[in-house]
Design a protein that fits this description.
Length: 225
């Protein structure tokens, strides 16, 4: 049996160099997409507009979010499908966060209360980026301290990585300034308003006032009622 390559398969065929070209083009495209992503986050005035109040107006059809499967503060499985028809007000953070997370969650809770009778149309959700420490039990007391309706979600590191990726959330463990082998988690801190169809409606910058957040949520509720 002759195993040497036939004339149709020379070791450096035009086909294989074409493959190499395609691979190089794919890498180049990947770099361009990464750069575009960085530009989107660093200069949100591109496809979106930031108002003075901290509301980021998103272009219709901006792809963000998507199906998730996580575990709530009572240990039950929660999927995005369970929120179909409802708005979701989502924040990613971790319970050991010293300042930014508690501030944002309090803003969400206040904004929700300002909606009055419309509040039940919005599900306030806290998703941890620290699933190792933020067990359902740990989340339970934490979210309840902000709002009785606040839902705390955790999951396996893989489940959290998947939902963070879908929402374009960056998070990374860093040594705690207090030392002792403790760590904190650097993370993106936007608040996301997702519509009843699961699509992104508004983004809120951290530090936004509760009044400005409530006003934008009310605008969005009005547009979809
Ligand atoms: Ni935080």
């Amino acid at each position: 049996m002759n195993n040497s390559p036939g004339p149709l398969k020379p070791s450096s065929s035009p086909a294989s160099s074409r493959l190499r070209l395609v691979a190089m083009a794919a890498v180049a495209l990947g770099i361009v997409l990464l750069a575009a992503g960085a530009v989107f986050w660093l200069r949100p005035q591109g496809p979106t507009q930031v108002t003075n109040s901290g509301v980021i107006q998103v272009a219709k059809g901006t792809a963000m979010g998507g199906p998730f499967e996580l575990v709530d503060q009572n240990g039950g499985t929660v999927t995005q499908a369970q929120f179909a028809g409802q708005f979701m007000l989502i924040y990613f953070g971790f319970t050991h966060c010293p300042d930014v997370c508690p501030t944002e969650l309090q803003t969400m809770a206040n904004a929700l209360d300002m909606l009055g009778p419309d509040a039940p149309r919005v599900a306030p959700i806290f998703i941890t980026v620290d699933p190792e420490r933020d067990t359902p039990d740990q989340l339970k007391g934490y979210v309840a301290a902000f709002h009785p309706r606040m839902i705390g979600l955790t999951g396996s590191p893989e489940q959290i990585a998947a939902v963070a990726k879908a929402y374009k959330v960056y998070y990374s463990k860093a040594p705690s300034p207090s030392g002792g082998g403790d760590y904190q988690v650097d993370h993106t801190s936007f608040v996301y308003l997702m519509g009843p169809d699961g699509g992104l409606r508004s983004l809120f910058r951290s530090g936004i006032s509760d009044k400005a957040m409530a006003m934008e949520i009310r605008n969005q509720l009005r547009q979809s009622s």
